[in-house]
């Protein structure tokens, strides 16, 4: 990650100052959204002003079609805990000084800037799926500066000659113009196609055949699933921390934990299939049935399980699994 240069920081703070001077949160709600295209990547950042309810003040830029879908989902359900871990974007907020760390304060001091009071200190963050909000790099600084500059233009005209809620079927987007500067147009609101199912992981046929010869077929039912551990943050010093995902296999009824492991993004399905086969080999027994809590894990385990004659089911509830899951989340939180 290449840190922003002195001039990139200067431009970003100037863009933030111009945006803040308009105090757009005093006349705009968090349901209003518009797009700004990144001159470098072409990605569209979907911009929404935050602060109408008096909480954090600033601008959120959700990137790409997934970012717009996440914004729509948040508007519909209001549950940031289910949306936040999947976001890719950039955020500018005004915070109290105590919430800024040394890396946040360094460019402020280098530029000779001063801020005083509550919710007066600029803070810039990068969002990536399943990772902790982190300091921005140079490319992100340039995109966020562009977004703030263009947001200032849009927000200054909201209520005068722009109505961002005029038609839910279209959305305003500002893009680089051929002759320089930016142009704006109303485009049909992008609709995100249903996500494609990930391919099933390949099966190590020789390994599965060996397991079928060596391991007895039992009558056990295993309950298993994968889930994010938002209370845990993992990362080496200087590395962007991530939120791991846990994969549990428990014996139905008894609560005996047969496997407990954590994985890092992007959570490859091959790791779940390997964990299942590792558990079978360790125990020397093939279960009669595997009840799986989530669709992703079912798809990952299905090919190997079926070759071993194991029924893969999706019951409405997995009581034993949920008890162990709750215990692990309390421990990791």
Number of strands: 14
Measured distance between first and last alpha carbons: 29 Å
Low-confidence stretches: none
What coarse outline follows from CA principal-axis ratios?
elongated
Number of domains: 2
Largest sheet: 7 strands, mixed
Radius of gyration: 24 Å
Indicate the topology.
Elements: H1 6-22, E1 34-37, E2 44-50, E3 57-63, H2 64-77, H3 80-83, E4 89-95, H4 102-110, E5 121-127, H5 138-157, E6 170-176, E7 182-188, H6 205-214, E8 216-217, E9 221-228, E10 245-251, E11 257-263, H7 269-283, E12 285-286, E13 289-292, H8 295-307, E14 311-313, H9 319-332
Parallel strand pairs: 1-6, 8-12, 9-13, 13-14
Antiparallel strand pairs: 1-2, 2-3, 3-4, 4-5, 6-7, 9-10, 10-11
Short synopsis of the structure:
By secondary structure, the protein is α/β, with parallel strands linked by helices. It is built from 9 helices and 14 strands. The strands form 3 sheets. The chain has a 7-stranded mixed β-sheet. Strands 11-10-9-13-14 form a 5-stranded mixed β-sheet, with helices on both faces. It has a two-stranded parallel sheet with strand order 8-12.
Descriptive notes:
This protein is of the alpha/beta class and 333 residues long. The chain folds into two domains: 183 residues, no CATH class; 128 residues, 2-Layer Sandwich (Nucleotidyltransferase, domain 5), CATH 3.30.420. It is built from nine helices and 14 strands. A seven-stranded mixed sheet has the order 5-4-3-2-1-6-7. A five-stranded mixed sheet has the order 11-10-9-13-14, with helices on both faces. Strands 8-12 form a two-stranded parallel sheet. A hairpin with a 5-residue loop joins strand 10 and strand 11. The longest helix is centred in the middle third of the chain and has 20 residues. The model has no long low-confidence stretch (mean pLDDT 92).
